[in-house]
Design brief:
2 domains; Immunoglobulin-like; 4-stranded antiparallel beta sheet; about 40% strand
């Protein structure tokens, strides 16, 4: 099997032979959705995943994992992308809730507490003009 194409937030396509049934495709531990299969191709919608380089895992319930062609790159890279920060201004006294939107955040970082010590739930550190926030 070979990865033939992928697009962030869109699809990932594989080619190979002998595909049959409906596979489970995961990339970085995140399951792709809407897989379509022919005897020689698999295509699915790639969800956002954690930052890093990941080898997709394709598994057919009756047959197990699909092997990759040797000597072929079989990884997909996810990068952290921040698409917006809101609000753009806040009180100099602090206490403003900040929302950072983007892709590539770990699933466990979808919520958390913010404090001045740099510790807390999930402990992802963001520094804004020398002030530490924890998301």
């Amino acid at each position: 099997m070979t990865i033939t194409s992928y697009t962030d937030g869109a699809s990932v396509d594989f080619t190979g032979t002998g595909f049959t049934g409906t596979p489970t495709v995961t990339i970085g531990g995140v399951e792709c959705t809407s897989p379509t299969v022919t005897a020689t191709s698999i295509s699915c919608t790639k969800a956002d995943g954690p930052v890093g380089s990941h080898t997709p895992v394709v598994e057919f319930p009756d047959y197990g994992h699909v092997a990759y062609d040797s000597g072929v790159s079989n990884t997909i890279d996810y990068t952290l992308a921040i698409t917006s920060i809101s609000p753009s201004l806040g009180s100099v006294a602090g206490g403003t809730t900040i929302t950072i939107t983007g892709t590539g955040f770990l699933p466990s970082l979808t919520s958390g507490t913010m404090n001045d010590s740099g510790t807390g739930e999930d402990a992802m550190k963001v520094t804004i003009q020398g002030n530490i926030c924890t998301i």
